[in-house]
Amino acid sequence: MPAPAEIYAPNPRLTNDPQRWRERAAEVRAIAEQMYNSFAIEAMERLAKDYDRWADWAEYLRKNPLAGQTSDAPLLSASTRHPTNI
Hints:
Blueprint lengths: L3 H5 L3 H4 L2 H16 L4 H26 L23
Helix pairs in contact: 3-4
């Protein structure tokens, strides 16, 4: 049986694919357009923005493959989970 880390480890092919994150953002925005509750709409818009930010991060990593392994990598802000110095 695999160790727990092996079971829950994200697949880098999926998590580092900017197109995947852009598609997810578009899906969330499409769902938000069908909603009526303003709080739910705002939450979905925030989620879509997060997906866009992850897409930006994945694009950055594709252009700078060693960025996640060095001390000069952009920092992820705790409040926005967005690279702060790209």
